Amino acid sequence: MVELIRGLSAERVRANLERVRAEIEGCGRDPSEVEILAAVKYVADEELEVLAEAGIELVGENRAQDLERRADPYGEWFAWDFIGTLQSRKVRAVLPHVRYIHSVATDSALRQLERFGGEDTEILVEVNVSGEEGKAGVPAEGLGSFLERSPVRVLGLMTMPPLTTDPERSRPYFASLSRLAERHGVRHLSMGTSQDYVVAVQEGATIVRLGMTLYGPRAS
């Protein structure tokens, strides 16, 4: 079992947040055009107040049960997105608590969105741009028809490239997602994590999903 993150410092998180914004600007991007999402899957409940104090405004939850448990008591501090693997049977539970779902990728999820979504429901579609067998996400070649079948508004795309320690190896996948977004006329690109967010920003990310880059000890 993974140990939860505790003992966060608002000062350190704030400094890390400002460093990330400076790096975004260093990529030639306007920091206001790239949202920094704090992934809180492993952050203990009592540390969420520290994140709010540090200036975090957007958080992402991976598990529906944790989202249901935490979004109401801590809802006024943040906007919440759902970034984990989406089980269609959990769509109804997730929708009331989130701004966007980043990980819609199945027709069963679309059916649940049609049933429980509304005019204000907005989603991102997860795309398997690498073509890895067994990986979540709509195949790139099937994206157009999937978007046409969506009963709710699709604002953008999300992807997770193959695991690697070299951020440059992620670049082709981010570039591919960017081209798909342009081709299909959607604005948001949710891509890039603590390992490769700089490359993702360079390739057009509008939302980066960060964990230890924000929580870690180095603020310089």
Helices and strands, with pairings:
Elements: H1 10-26, E1 35-39, H2 48-54, E2 58-61, H3 64-71, E3 79-82, H4 91-94, E4 100-104, H5 107-116, E5 122-128, E6 138-139, H6 143-149, E7 153-158, H7 171-184, E8 188-190, H8 197-202, E9 207-210, H9 212-215
Parallel strand pairs: 1-2, 1-9, 2-3, 4-5, 5-6, 5-7, 7-8
Helix pairs in contact: 1-2
Model description:
The chain is of the alpha/beta class and 220 residues long. It has one domain: Alanine racemase (TIM Barrel), CATH 3.20.20.10. 35% of the residues lie in helices and 18% in strands. It is globular.
**How much strand?**
15-25%
Query: Which descriptor suits the 3D outline?
Result: globular
CATH secondary-structure class: Alpha Beta
Helix coverage percent: 25-40%
Helix/sheet category: alpha/beta
Average pLDDT works out at: 96
Largest sheet: 5 strands, parallel
Order of helices and strands: HEHEHEHEHEEHEHEHEH
Rg, nearest Å: 17 Å
Work out the helix count.
Answer: 9
Short synopsis of the structure:
The chain is of the alpha/beta class. The chain is built from nine helices and nine strands. The protein is about 35% helix and about 20% strand.
